Amino acid sequence: MSIETATTICSVALHLDGEIRALNSYFLDKSHSSLLQPTIRKMMDDCSFNMADLSAIAVSMGPGSYTGLRIGVSAAKGLCYALDKPLIGINTLSAMAYGVRKNNVRSYWFCPMLDARRMEVYTLLLDDQFNEIKVTHPLIVEEPPFSEYLDKQPVLFFGNGAGKCKEVIKHTNALFLDGIEPSAVYVGDLAYQKFQSRSFEDLAYFEPYYLKEFKATKPKVKV
Length: 223
Known about the structure:
Blueprint: E1 2-4, E2 10-16, E3 19-26, H1 32-46, E4 57-62, H2 66-83, E5 87-91, H3 92-101, E6 109-115, E7 120-126, E8 132-140, H4 147-150, E9 155-158, E10 174-177, H5 184-196
Parallel strand pairs: 1-4, 4-5, 6-9, 9-10
Antiparallel strand pairs: 1-2, 2-3, 6-7, 7-8
Helix pairs in contact: 1-2, 3-5
């Protein structure tokens, strides 16, 4: 079973031998804490599948929303402890890129971007063979990024942070895809690969991949 809560989308998926069997998704902001557990239960009931029969639990570990990641990772770890199942952590951006790569008919490179507020995004760059060209990092969109790669190679930009770059990246090799969102389906696809290699997380020490330190703001004083 796979869990995705890194953005406003809450989704859970069930895979069997690497093939998707069920997916439940909600596109409701600030609803993860109330919807995640009922969504998991409904999916498992609809599939007549027992939680104890799961082989592992995968979770989108970030980067993304602090609150969303915390909720998803906490739920995944709690289930793993209760069911004595291994945990698999998947990079949110890598899972997004994997979903796009499934339908890639040309030798495009992949640049998923998640909104990190203001003019900043979380991003990485992968080639058409899914090798990391630039690791996951926060990027302030001020000057055209990735110019040295765009001069030689077409790159697909997508995700809810990519829109910030449309006015900055004007290169003819830059292509923007709309409507690409994180999904538990692609988390599960990559998790199956990790499951086969027995690449599991340490439950005691596993934390969300926040990428940046959380900065709390003081509430405004009402007058």
